[in-house]
Design a protein that fits this description.
The structure is a homodimer of 187-residue chains. With 187 residues, chain A is mainly alpha-helical. Chain A contains eight helices and two strands. Chain A has two domains: 2-84, Arc Repressor Mutant, subunit A (Orthogonal Bundle); 97-184. Chain A starts with a helix and ends with a helix. The first copy, chain A, binds a DNA duplex (28 and 28 nucleotides) through helix 2 and helix 3.
Chain lengths: 187, 187
DNA sequence: AGGATCATGTAACCGGTTACATGATTAC
DNA sequence: GTAATCATGTAACCGGTTACATGATCCT
């Protein structure tokens, strides 16, 4: 399962709690793989049973106790094996409720469609701004998170951000062109 | 569930068997929503229990018997309701095993990464060709599938194809730029 | 001779989502 | 005061994947 390897990959940078693992997901990896807290906690206990991580409890007086997870040697090995094993098919199946409705667009009012395209555009533009903000504070975050070689990690994290930005710009342009075409279209 | 509405949407163009429903998915809607045969059969029986479709068996001597599904009035209504009810969030969560490995690219050999990027590029280029072929034979398929207003349907189906083509071209460009940057990078 | 196509399903499994449960501290 | 953050989990549910089962005809 990819989620568990994503988690092992993060833990290979250093020990973390489930909660802080979630933070890393949200701040960086969510570009590429989203995860919920309940999933992370469930998966952590599976990983511990497999011997890929081990945990120690750190008592805190002012805050709830922490269960800190460390990656084991077996965990590092399993992660490296997964990492090197690229799947044959490099694409993933697509399921998009918005596009499904566009597919059946002939059964909708033109005005309603334009409203929805505009909503789509503004949501994508908002997300583009989020990505640009992440990008601009990236080197700070890199040094926090990655201890060994922050510059090298930044190269690859920038690849994922760049893909996000490029595809966002493209779908915004696509939606704008759709609105234009719809405007011209008379039925 | 979106799958069932996608199925109802197709059935609103005319009666079909589970098997031929799958064909329509593969030829057109799979751009936007993929479905497996077992899923389709399972979902058809659910839809029948709900009264959204009804089936009749057509005996065939040379081929296995067909169970032909028709959409009911209640089904049409449910479909229209779903269609008009665009979700607030117009994007879908992303989970991409390839990108996850790129994210951890600093832990891989540069040469291996370039090989994988090249594979990515050739796969995307192949898929782009498939899309272009679909596009060029689209008007034929439109008249086959859509009885009422093929030109209007074609407009929207072209929207989905166009998005596919645009994003494919973008990710190909992205991957090429990554290879270029990787080539320059010395560690 | 062998693989693709037509045609219909069932059952087990797996992983992602949602809801539930608890509760202190900190910042506005 | 109230919302957010810190912190950990469990349980039920739902939908997508994979494997199994069957068998004739058509095309190469």
């Amino acid at each position: 399962m990819s989620l568990s390897y994503a988690m092992l990959g993060i833990l290979s940078y250093g020990p973390r709690t489930g909660y802080s693992l979630k933070k890393v997901f949200d701040k960086s990896i969510s570009q590429v793989w989203v995860a919920s807290l309940s999933q992370i906690y469930r998966e952590l206990s599976v990983l511990e049973k497999k011997g890929y991580v081990c945990s120690t409890i750190q008592k805190q007086d002012d805050r709830p106790n922490k269960r800190i997870y460390n990656i084991t040697g077996a965990g590092e090995l399993a992660f490296q094996e997964w990492l090197q094993d690229f799947p044959d098919k490099l694409s993933y199946p697509l399921r998009d409720g918005f596009m499904l409705r566009i597919f059946f667009g002939s059964k909708l009012e033109k005005e309603e469609l334009i409203i929805q395209f505009e909503r789509f555009i503004s949501q994508k533009k908002a997300y583009l701004k989020v990505l640009e903000e992440i990008e601009s504070t990236f080197n700070v975050y890199c040094n926090e998170f990655s201890s060994e070689s922050p510059e090298k990690d930044q190269l690859f994290w920038n690849f994922t951000i760049k893909r996000g930005k490029m595809t966002l710009k493209t779908v915004i342009r696509w939606a704008e062109e759709c609105v234009e075409q719809l405007g011209k279209y008379e039925d």
